[in-house]
Amino acid sequence: MRLRFWPAKTRERRATVLAGLILVQALCALFFIGDVIEDFRLLGDPDNPHLLLEALAALALIGGVIFLMIELRGLLARMSDMETGLEIARGHLAEVIARFFDDWSLTAAERDVALMILKGLDNDTIAQVRKTAPGTVRAQTTSIYAKSNTDGRAQFISLIVEELLAGNGLPEAAPDLTERAQAPARRLPERTG
Amino acid sequence: MQAALQRTRGRAGAREVAVWDPLVRLIHWSLALAILLNATLVEDESMAHEWIGYAALGLVGLRLVWALVGPRHARFSSFPPSPVRAIGHLRAILAGDRSVHLSHNPLGALMVYNLWASVIAIGVTGHMMTTPAWFGVEWVEEAHEAIFAWLIFSVALHVAGVALESWRSGVNLARAMLNGRKTIPEGRDLP
Predict the structure, then answer these.
(1) Contact: B23, A72; criterion CB under 8 Å
(2) What ipTM was predicted for this assembly?
(3) Residues of B (53-72) whose Cβ lies below 8 Å from A
(4) A18 and A78 together in one domain
(5) What's the domain count of chain A?
(6) Among A59, A81, A114, B168, fewest CB within 10 Å belongs to which?
(7) CB within 8 A of A29, min separation 6: which ones?
(8) What is the pTM assigned to this prediction?
(9) What range does the domain containing A82 cover?
């Protein structure tokens, strides 16, 4: 990953801008407080309108800083929640894929190839990455489709996507999937945990 | 399966964790800039020197407030000043332990408090030098300079510590302070 100083995501950018505002505004507040204290020492008159106005400005700035801090904290909490959610989803997806592969008893090589199919690589690229002949990859994909009881790449990928969309992990929700759920080769192992 | 997943993901099993929020990073680098400016470029008895000093005080003050109300890794509770834990951490380093700390590690935490306290002490003695009551008082000026020397020594130690810890734990800490994320190598413990 490249080192990015200006974040690409909208939320991260917002957080950076908020942090910058807090910093500048806090320093401004500090300046005004110092100014008010200094003026009060020199003038010594708390009823002076100039002093009152400055004190008000300082208070408003402090209030603004506190408000922005709460905002930034909320934004950061939302960002962290989203990241946790994504992390969990990623973990679940890996688990789901592993369970499919286990269920179809794919060999180690077939698992590699199947994963690359899911990642959108075509046969020639897979052959290049795995340093094997295109014929080997073709044989492996044929075996994968046979074991998973699918008729090709698109249907194979849709199996995994269906699992994600089904929500509860059981593909019975849609009528055209019931048949598939009943086919022993495709049935998912029971969810544990 | 897991191996295959990791192989296609690029860096094997490494994961990124958002640690330093933008406010922490901005304060860090602003404070570093303030110290650098006042130590080198800016004339000692100029107005700019005073203003930068007050700004540094404000930065530390803001960071202390953020350590009370900010997100988890920025809070005091993530890096309590504990010599006992620091000694434990030192022992773990010597024993070859390579676990990763998400916030400051216990030794780093002590350094953080040391740096903040030094900046505050320099700011306070610096302000005293501008007031009629303390102007020209010798011990104040001496304290200002002595603590400044201590601060520069601490900064050098801080940079060395960051380099050592980055090398030891495999997490690029300087980068984490720039983009906010620590890249945790695969299979590393998080105490």
Answers:
(1) yes
(2) 0.79
(3) 54-55, 57-59, 61-62, 65-66, 69-71
(4) yes
(5) 2
(6) A81
(7) A58, A61, A62, A64, A65
(8) 0.69
(9) 10-86
